């Protein structure tokens, strides 16, 4: 497409949506200033106390617009099988017709912003460009932080670069077709929501929500759903993964990517402050990695984003001091509580709650109120560049070579603290079979166990069976000695009383240390039915208040429970029909054989 087609698209969209004004954005500081002033005066943003939290703001959403809406998220491919059994499918023409009727006049009385953005450093061969049209200035401000908003994108497009048209409206016009006015609100949105993706033509149409992944279209919509479909066509991987560099006390560095479902610890691991002396972790990304094979038969990864859109609750001075430091200024907060002195608070920021707050709904709150002051999916938006542990590679066009890939989830039972795959194919099986307890990051039943393969269940833009095959193919294309090793981790196993068995957070460095020692061939591992486990004594638990019984519980592999998991996996795999790679059935049979053959668990970290 050419620059002309951008103009054409903007003109056609304006004709359809009928805004009162069009503003072409440039991502500048002046634009930030104008839009924050505008939103403070309209009441959408509250300016926080500049002495405590300079250039920072609080937004409170409509209570019905607080998280991603997975049941309103659609993959519109010509054939239903190409969206697959894990996605909501609609026919592309049907969806576009319907959306045209919703977008018709949807921006009446509002300003339409045209936001050119790059996912990835703009000069990176792995970067991809997009243009978001939105009628939400709050979205524009978030895009400033989360992506690289720049008019340079137009130059790249003029020079022939591909781009993704990403159309967004909150669906709350200020006038109807007869000119009758409806009053504005501080968080306009529509009860009817559509987050629609057209992977075959790389287009996004999002209607009705102003929140997070529903509306910041560079994030899940482009970088994961459209990105995964592009990656399949072009031979790369778009993943829901954090990215870190780990350096050992001896100075050896490793790059690790880790896929955990939403609100399952990516930001925390990305900002890990190791409790083990001499170890260092530096941050490259906390949510999305774009990974491509290079000419050495190795995988290289970039973080396509430029900011964190992090879960606030549970982010505390003790659990994640790096995040707390990162957001001390220039931060947008959404749905957290407001303190009496004009600062922010949420559950877990400090051990004790302040006596008087205004909660996320705008009502007075005190510790006896009996409900959370911040919404469980409240978030902070802040630039990566402010992170004290940021790695210089976060902004490097060539990205970093990957040494290990971790898969994880929130599992109270069954899944051990860490287990290593036997090989790439087994690693893909581990990723494909991840299940996790649902969190508040999406509308749904918090705590319900669900399959979340590769932490991509809500984010894969095509048939998940084809996605597994793509992973197998990418692995085959790598030099064997350069393939990242694959591990599964679980920080969330609980004891019989429902208490976490593992301290987590900074102590996760102990697991990272074991993984690094495996990569370095410094330690052996013990074979079990589900993969290779640490041998007794190799996982450093010095100084941890953890009993031998608890440790053995964290690594326990219950054969009966795993046989049940295998049955559930078989039923799950059946949904994919002939799109299920033969390698996945083979791995399931191997697991079954191992469970019968070994009793599952003769390698135990025991007293
Ligand atoms: P998304 O941004 O939704 O993709 O989430 P995320 O994967 O980045 O999750 P994040 O790191 O923000 O963590 C979500 C919640 O899990 C927070 O409340 C954390 O406090 C909690 N958490 C993170 N790591 C650990 C851990 O090691 N142990 C325990 N028990 N909780 C953790
Ligand atoms: C997630 O839910 O995985 C997030 C938050 O990272 S959102 O951007 O809303 O998707
Ligand atoms: Mn995420």
TrEMBL record:
The keyword Transmembrane does not apply. Residues 236-591 form the Phosphoenolpyruvate carboxykinase C-terminal P-loop domain. GO terms for molecular function: GTP binding; manganese ion binding; phosphoenolpyruvate carboxykinase (GTP) activity. InterPro entries: PEP_carboxykin_GTP_CS (IPR018091), PEP_carboxykinase_C (IPR013035), PEP_carboxykinase_GTP (IPR008209), PEP_carboxykinase_GTP_C (IPR035077), PEP_carboxykinase_GTP_N (IPR035078), PEP_carboxykinase_N (IPR008210). Its cofactor is Mn(2+). Keywords: Decarboxylase, Gluconeogenesis, GTP-binding, Lyase, Manganese, Metal-binding, Nucleotide-binding. Residues 8-232 form the Phosphoenolpyruvate carboxykinase GTP-utilising N-terminal domain. It is an enzyme of class 4 (lyase). Signal peptide: none annotated. GO terms for cellular component: cytosol. The keyword Hydrolase does not apply. One of its GO terms (biological process) is gluconeogenesis. Its EC number is 4.1.1.32. Pathway: Carbohydrate biosynthesis; gluconeogenesis. It holds the Pfam family PEPCK_N. Transmembrane segments: none annotated. Monomer. PANTHER family: PHOSPHOENOLPYRUVATE CARBOXYKINASE, PHOSPHOENOLPYRUVATE CARBOXYKINASE [GTP]-RELATED. Belongs to the phosphoenolpyruvate carboxykinase [GTP] family. This is phosphoenolpyruvate carboxykinase (GTP).
């Amino acid at each position: 497409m050419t620059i002309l087609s951008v103009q054409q698209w903007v003109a056609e969209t304006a004709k359809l949506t009928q805004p009162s004004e069009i503003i072409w954005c440039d991502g500048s500081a002046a634009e930030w200033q104008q839009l924050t002033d505008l939103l403070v005066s309209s009441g959408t943003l509250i300016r926080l106390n500049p002495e405590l939290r300079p250039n920072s703001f609080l937004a409170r959403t409509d209570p019905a617009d607080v998280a991603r809406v997975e049941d309103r998220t659609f993959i519109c491919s010509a054939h239903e099988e190409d969206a697959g059994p894990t996605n909501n499918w609609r026919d592309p023409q049907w969806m576009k017709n319907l959306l045209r009727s919703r977008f018709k006049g949807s921006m009446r009385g509002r300003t339409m912003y045209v936001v050119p953005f790059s996912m990835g450093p703009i000069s990176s061969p792995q970067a991809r460009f997009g243009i978001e049209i939105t009628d939400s200035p709050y979205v524009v401000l978030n895009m400033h932080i989360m992506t690289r908003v720049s008019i340079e994108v137009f130059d790249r497009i003029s020079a022939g670069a591909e781009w993704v048209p990403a159309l967004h409206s909150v669906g709350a016009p200020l006038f109807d077709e007869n000119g009758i006015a409806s009053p504005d609100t501080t968080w306009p949105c529509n009860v009817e929501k559509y987050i629609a993706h057209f992977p075959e033509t790389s287009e996004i149409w999002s209607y009705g929500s102003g929140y997070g992944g529903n509306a910041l279209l560079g994030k899940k919509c482009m970088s994961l759903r459209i990105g995964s479909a592009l990656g399949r066509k072009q031979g790369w991987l778009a993943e829901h993964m954090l990215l870190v560099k780990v350096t050992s006390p001896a100075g050896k560095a490793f790059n690790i990517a880790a896929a955990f479902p939403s609100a399952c610890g990516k930001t925390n691991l990305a900002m890990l402050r190791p409790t083990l002396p001499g170890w260092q972790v530096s941050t490259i990304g906390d949510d999305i990695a774009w990974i491509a094979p290079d000419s050495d038969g190795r995988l290289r990864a970039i973080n396509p984003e430029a900011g964190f859109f992090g879960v606030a609750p549970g982010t505390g001075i003790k659990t994640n001091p790096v995040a707390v430091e990162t957001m001390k200024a220039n931060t947008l907060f959404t749905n957290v509580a407001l303190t009496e002195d004009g600062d922010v608070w949420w559950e877990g920021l400090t051990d004790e709650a302040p006596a008087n707050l205004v909660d996320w709904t705008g009502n007075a709150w005190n510790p006896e109120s009996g409900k959370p002051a911040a919404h469980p999916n409240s978030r902070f938006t802040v630039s990566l560049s402010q992170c004290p542990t940021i790695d210089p590679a976060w902004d490097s066009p060539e990205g970093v070579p990957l040494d290990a890939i971790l898969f994880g989830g929130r599992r109270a039972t069954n899944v051990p603290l860490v287990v290593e795959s036997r090989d790439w194919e087994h690693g893909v099986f581990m990723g494909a079979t991840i299940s996790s307890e649902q969190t508040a990051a999406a509308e749904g039943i918090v705590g319900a166990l669900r399959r979340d393969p590769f932490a991509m269940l809500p984010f894969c833009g095509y048939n998940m069976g084809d996605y597994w095959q793509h992973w197998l193919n990418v692995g085959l294309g790598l030099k064997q000695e350069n393939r990242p090793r694959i591990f599964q981790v679980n920080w969330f196993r609980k004891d019989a009383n429902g208490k976490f068995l593992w301290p987590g957070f900074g102590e996760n460095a102990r697991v990272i240390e074991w993984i690094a020692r495996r990569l370095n061939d410094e330690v052996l591992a013990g074979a079990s039915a589900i993969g290779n486990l640490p041998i007794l004594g190799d996982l450093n638990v010095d100084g941890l208040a953890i009993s031998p019984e608890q440790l053995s519980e964290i690594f326990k592999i219950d054969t009966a429970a795993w046989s049940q998991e295998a049955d559930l996996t078989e039923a799950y795999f059946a949904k994919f029909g002939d799109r299920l790679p033969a390698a996945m059935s083979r791995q399931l049979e191997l697991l079954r054989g191992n469970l019968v053959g070994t009793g599952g668990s003769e390698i135990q970290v025991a007293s």
